[in-house]
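Example 704.
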Amino acid sequence: MSSTQHPSHPVSTGVPSDMKSQDLEADRREAGEVLTTNQGLAISDNQNSLRAGARGPTLLEDFILREKITHFDHERIPERVVHARGEGAHGYFEVYEPMSKLTRAAFLQDPAAKTPVFVRFSTVAGSRGSADTARDARGFAVKFYTSEGNFDLVGNNIPVFFIQDAIKFPDLVHALKPEPDSEMPQASSAHDTFWDFISLMPESTHMIMWVMSDRAIPRSHRMMEGFGVHTFRLVNAEGVSRFVKFHWKPVLGIHALAWDEAQQLAGRDPDFHRRDLWEAIDRGAYPEWELGLQVVEEADAEKLGFDLLDATKLIPENLVPVQKIGKLTLTQNTDNFFAETEQVAFHPGHLVPGIEFSNDPLLQGRLFSYTDTQLSRLGGPNFHEIPINRPRCPFHNNQRDGMHRQSIAIGRVAYEPNSLADGKPHEIEPALGGFASVAERMESPKIRARSPSFADHFSQARLFWVSQSLVEQDHIVLAFTFELSKVGVPAIRERMVRTLENVDPVLAGRVARGLGLKDHQATVRSTPLPEPEPSPQLSMLGSGDHSIRTRKIAILVADGVDGEAVERVRKALEAAGAVCKLVALTLGTVTSASGDALSVDHTLLTTPSVVFDAVFVPGGSHGLRACGDALRFVLEAYKHGKAIAASGDGLELLDEAGIPPETCPAGVVYQTGETLLADVAAQFIDAIGAHRHWQRCSQDAVPA
Ligand code: HDE
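Predicted structure in complex with HDE:
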C-alpha cells in the first residue's frame, strides 16, 4: 500500500498531504492475515496453553504462552508525572508572511509551506484515566517538525504560572496531586494540601485567579487559548534579539462549561474533551488556532513595570498587542494512541535557529526536567528515535548505543574531530544554519536569591479580577467558595481569604461569606489597592464571532413528533455549521405525525443534556412529557444556561419541567401562534451563538 493510501488517511478530503504522517507510514503495521509470534512463527492454537494432560499443569516449555503473557505484563509505561491525561492529533502550521525581520527560523518564512505538527492537549493534576473536565489548567503542547529540526512550544491555556522558580515545582505538584497517604482526591485541587501550599505562596495568587475562573473548565480544547507562558527570544539573521510571548488564539473563540455541567460530565462522559476533538477532526471540522506574538524590544523591557522574566506576569494585550502571524490546523487523528500520544516527548529546549530562551528561572529549570523525565517514562536515551519524536529532517551525530537503539550507525567512526570519515559529521557555522546562543553579557555573582523585580504578587491578580465581567466574577467567587469549602482545616481557609484581600476586598468578603466566616473583617490598608486599567482581552465574554459552527444540538423526539419542524430546524442549524442529533426514549426510529420514520442517534438513557450545547423540542412528542429523563434533560440545559427552543406544543415539556414561557427567560425560544419555523430557527441560532445565557445559571432555585 502506498503511503497516501492508508485507510484512515484518505487523500480525497482536500486536506494537504501531512508530511509527518507520510514519515510514519513505514512504521504502521496492518493486522495481517495469519496470527504469529513476535518471531514470525505461525500459531495454530490461540485458545489453549500447553499442558501435561487436559487437566494437568501448564508446561514451562510453552514459549507461545510465555511470550504473550510477558509482553502483556509490560504493556504499561509510567504515566507523565504531570499532564498524564491528554489527547493528541496531527496537523500543520502555515505562516501568513515571511517573519525575517524578527526571526531567522525557516518555518516562519514561507507562506506557501506547511510545517507538519503534532499537538497534545492535557490536564495537569489527574492520572491517565481521569476525567477531562476537572477544574485545572490545560496543557497545549505543539511539536513542529521543521526543516531545521523539531521545535516544541510546550504551553498551557493560562498565560502565567503558579511559581517563579523551578525549585518550587516538586512542592507545588506534591501539594496538588492526590494526598500521599490516601491517594485522594483524584484530578482535583479542592483539598487541604493544595490550598495549604497556595495560601502560603503569595506568588501563586495571579495563577490561582485564572484557575478559579472559567478558563479552567473549557467547553472544548478547540475553544481555548494557548500560551507559551515564558518570555522567549526571537533572533533574526543579523543577530538582533527581541523578547516574545507566544499565543494561540482559537478561531472558534474562547468558551467554557458551567461548573455544575463540568462535574456531571466527569461521570457522564469522562472523555468529553477527547471525544470532542476526535469527532471534530473525524468529520472534517478541522480545529484552528492563530499563532500570535507579543514582541518587546530589549530596550523597552524595563518600561513595562514588571519583570518579563517572571512567569507569574503576563503582558496585557492593551499594552502590547498580539500580532497574528500564522495558523495551526489539526487534520488527522492518531492511528494508535500509545505510539503517538503516549510516546510523544515534548521539551521546551527543542529549539530551531532564530528562537531562544530568556533567563526566566522557571523556564531554565524546565530545560533540565523534560529530557530527564523521558528517561524513566520512555525507558532510555533513544526516545528521539520513536517514530512520533523523530525529526523529519536528517539528524547525525556521534551518540551511540543505549537501551532500545533502533538505527544502525554504519562505520567505525563515532567521534569528532576525525579524519577517517572525512571529518563528518562536522559543525556548521551560524550563517549556514548552525545554532548559536545569543551572546548575552553575564557579570553576576553566583547567588541563590529572587530578584526584587519579582516581588509584586498581587497587581496582576487584581488586573485579572477587574478585567472580568460581573458574571465571570461571580463564577470566580463560586469556584473559590467550592474549593475552599472542601478544605478541612479552618486556618487554611482563613489564610486564603486574607490573601484574597490583596486582590479585592469584595472578592474576599464574598468568599468569606460563602465559607461561613462570620467574623471576617476587611483588611484596613494604609494605601488603597491600585486601580488598574481593565484589559478587555482577559475576559472571555464576547469572545468569538457568535458562530454556531461545530456546536452539538439535541433534538428531543418521540412518536408523533412534528417531522417538518425537525427537518426545517435541523436544516437551518446544519447550514450554520452545527451538528444535530436526535435523542429519543430508545434507539431505532420514531414515527413522525405524518408517518415518516426518523432515525434516532442517542437515547435519553445514555446521553444527557450536558454533552450538548443546546436543545430543541419540536411539537408532537407527547411521550416525552411523562419521562423523567426528558424533564431532567431540559431542566439541566436550562440550569446550565444553554439555548433551548420549542416549536408547537413542544413548549409543554418545558412547562412541565417548570420553565414557564411567561417569564421569557434569556436564550429560550418559543414558537408562538404567529412565529414561523424559520424564525424559530433563526432566533435559536442567535441564542446558541451567545454560547451560554449565564444569568440563568445563578438561579439556585432550579433543582437540576
Ligand atoms: Fe511542565 N512538565 N513543568 N510546564 N508541562 C511536564 O514533562 C515541569 C510548566 C507542560 O503533552 C513533564 O514530558 C517543570 C509550565 C505541558 O507531553 C515534566 C516545571 C508549563 C506538559 C514537566 C514545569 C508547562 C508538561 C511531565 C517548572 C506551561 C505536557 C511529562 C519549572 C508553559 C507535555 C513530560 C505533553 C509536562 C516539568 C512547568 C507545560 C515533568 C519542572 C510553566 C503542556 O518534565
